[in-house]
Amino acid sequence: MYFKKITLLFFLIFATLGYSQTLSLKEAIKTGLENYGSIRAKNNYTNASRETLKQSKRDYLPNLNLSAQQDYGTINGQNGALYGFNGLGTASSGPALPDQNWNSAFGALYLVNMNWDFFTFGKAKEKINLAKMDVQTKETDLKQEMFQQEIRISAAYLNLLASQRLLISQQKNLSRAEVFKRTAAARVKNGLLAGVDSTLATAEVSKAKIALNLARNFVKEQNNKLVDLMGVAPQDFAVDTLFVNNVPKALLVAEKTTDSLHPLLQLYKARMDYSNQQAKLYKHFYYPTMTAFGVLQTRASGFQSDYITDQTAFTRNYWDGVNPDRTNYLVGIGISWNLTTPFRMSKQVSAQKFVSQALQEEYNQADRELKSQMNFADDKIKITLDNYAEAPIQVDAAKKAYLQKSTLYKNGLTDLTDLTQIMYTLNRAEIDRDITNNNVWQSYLLKVAATGNFDLFINEF
């Protein structure tokens, strides 16, 4: 009979609040991992780093350039030195005649150029390795964010569950207050009690209604937090309530240890590896680069070969000017080495080493904090388990006291003040039970967060 009443009470409360569906923890986590903005963003960052890795591998391919140009202009030449500063200048070539003339014709240049840094003393390889480290860093960052999101959603889910159970306790408290308001009113009407009892009973009903409204507001706050973490449209959820009446099974068996590194420590380690790889790449810039190159060039001109002696030996015909008639090729191997680069890059290498040391200190600090959190979680689990064992005793005793006081009140053997006090005690005991049961799971979640293995928690469901 009692179970049926509680079931009916759940139904009425959920119908009143307009819950659209029952949400399991696994569904909440799955939805949150799919929809949450930071996870979607970091997933895109990871995909971008993978594409960058592919691009870094393709950087080793040789450069192959095709070029074609067709021009129209004069070819007056002049003896003298010239430097094409910033590419400003023309490549017109012709005889150095005593006077300026405006003879002009078409000309063309067709060019195929290939150059390939075929041996870079490890620079190309280390660039690829750096891109791989970047992918690894982005992947571990995504994994860490997903782990944290799983913890956040689980905590919000437990908070919503606790708020809904508190709402039920406050609803039961209001029901008790209304019952005794009616009892007191009837007895006052029949002259069996003073009128003040009816007034006090009315005050207790109002107090219970205020507490119920505060509980409803608390439910909405916790529900909205869960909605935000899931990345879904605003809606009201009814959460699973069965598991919270038991303790996590993992607490009843021998503790399992995990050899895997915490996702947060994995992230710091990946960042250290990336920093060390950067320093390694910078060192390879100390060395020269060997390049193979080849050029195939074809030229055309409307000026004839005897133009130097006969300034009429040219044509303004377009086709004659752009039809190629001279070709040259060139192949070779070169080496380039900026001898001052090692002096500059040495400071960049030392700076990167300091970055690696800083990341190592952050890793050590995070490791200490996780160990401290683990120790705190173990102590908290012990305390919450003790409270979990005591809570039913408190509720049972409060129920018996409430039954005794209510019977005495109905028979005129005690006053409403004593009954009100015991009603408060029963209400407080029920709330303590709801909070204590939930705290067992919250403390276990805290330990899982310090362990870094979320499977230990989700496998309980």
Automatic annotation (TrEMBL):
It is found in: Cell outer membrane. Keywords: Cell outer membrane, Membrane, Transmembrane, Transmembrane beta strand, Transport. It comes from the Bacteria. InterPro entries: OMP_efflux, TolC-like. One of its GO terms (molecular function) is efflux transmembrane transporter activity. One of its GO terms (cellular component) is cell outer membrane. PANTHER family: OUTER MEMBRANE PROTEIN TOLC. Belongs to the outer membrane factor (OMF) (TC 1.B.17) family. This is Outer membrane protein TolC. It comes from Flavobacterium circumlabens. The lineage of its organism: Bacteria, Pseudomonadati, Bacteroidota, Flavobacteriia, Flavobacteriales.
